[in-house]
Every structure is written in C-alpha cells, then in structure tokens.
Amino acid sequence: MMRPMVENIKVLYFANKSLEPYVQIITLMDSGKRCQSVCSSEEGNCSENEEIEDLLPVLRDPSQILNNLYITNLANHMPARTQGYPWNLVYSTAFHGTSLKTLYRRMAHIDCPVLLVIKDMENKVFGAFSSDPFKVSNYCYGTGETFLYSFYPEFKAYRWSGENSYIVRGHKDSLQIGGGGGYFGLWLDSDLYHGASYACHTFNNQPLSNKQDFTVQDLEVWTVQ
C-alpha cells in the first residue's frame, strides 16, 4: 500500500528595490488526495495532465487565448492574495468589440487586480497583471505587484524595477503600462487594434512581442479576485 505523500509547500518571494521582501507560504493539498479522483484503481497512478488541471484556477468564462500552460505560468507568478480565486472574464474583443472606451466602462465598478492577455496577429501571447483595474486617470496608478509578461520565445515575467512609478496610466485614447526612457512597456490605442511594446525602465523588460509595433488579434481582461 502506497503511503500518502506529504504536503507540498510553495514559498513565493516578492521584492523590489523600494519594498522590503516578504515571504508568503501556501500549503497545497496532499498529492495523494489530489490524485484520488483520477487514479486508476488497478495501477494507482494518475495522469500528469489531469493532476495539473486539478491545480489550475477555475475560469468561469471561455477564453479565446488562454490554455492550461498559459494559465499555470501566470497563476504561479501572481501575488499570493489572488491565489484560490476564480478568474472572471470582464472584457473580450471577441464578445464586446474593439473599444478602449468599452473596456473602461466594463471595469468602472471593479475594485480588484486584473489580468490583461493579448494575442497578436503573429500568434504571440503577452500582456500584464495590474494591481488595479484600468481606468482613465490624470496620474499613474498601480503598485509593485504589477508586472508585464510574455510567452515569446518562452515565458518571462518582468516585475517592477522600482526605478519609477510610471506603472499604469489610462487615457481616453490609449492605455499605457510602464514607461521611462521615452518608451512604454506596453501601449494600446483607442480601438485596441494597434499596440506597441518597448524596453522601459519601470519593468526593465524586453519588447513583449516579436515586433515592437504589433496588431491585436484577440484581447481579454480577467478579474482574479
């Protein structure tokens, strides 16, 4: 008879140049219990894919972009306070049209972190996790939890460098994430059709897409708390 595996403990570190680092410990459920529903009664082994799916956040709406690999990587890099919450689709170009104004309107009554996911015309997937919902503002907003990410050519998260506070700013005709050195880490126009991504001081990132100027194929925004 196989002995149950001990609990796995995952330690997440969050730090930047301006904040003291801290540690958040999340205890995952026992591996034996996780596999119980998917194990074969004869072999006693569970499918790796099925086990991974058991650990994924619950998406309450269909996604045109996200798959299990994307979800796993993103969830593992989000702040501890977002763990365990379902993801809700608040805006999608596939369902709500291509309008930054509509995006702002659908987020007007939201007060929680959001995940921006973009697929460009070259099928590159990238975006940003924002500690604050997107809105029109005369000033920059957001905290050091905000980060940029890209799956091209492999997954990479670019966290706040602490060099400036140009984290997020929403204009009526554009959305800007990151800045410094005269360039934005991620920029979108009012039609959510044309975008740009350059290296910037806020996140010390590389361009998120294959091209610095890109065209949007699909765009989604998810709430994660």
What characteristics describe this protein?
single chain, 225 residues, alpha+beta, ten-stranded antiparallel β-sheet, two-stranded antiparallel sheet, 5 helices, 15% helix, globular
| Spans where pLDDT lies below 50 across 5 or more residues | 1-52
What is the helical fraction, as a range of percent? 10-25%
Average pLDDT rating: 83
Structural class: alpha+beta
State the end-to-end CA separation: 40 Å
Fraction of residues in β-strands: 25-35%
Kindly state the number of beta strands: 12
Domains, number: 2
Largest sheet: 10 strands, antiparallel
Question: How large, in whole angstroms, is the Cα Rg?
Answer: 19 Å
Order of helices and strands: EEHHHEHHEEEEEEEEE
* Spatial shape: globular
Number of helices: 5
Organism: Umbra pygmaea (Eastern mudminnow)
Pfam families: TLD
Protein name: TLDc domain-containing protein
Domain TLDc: 64-225
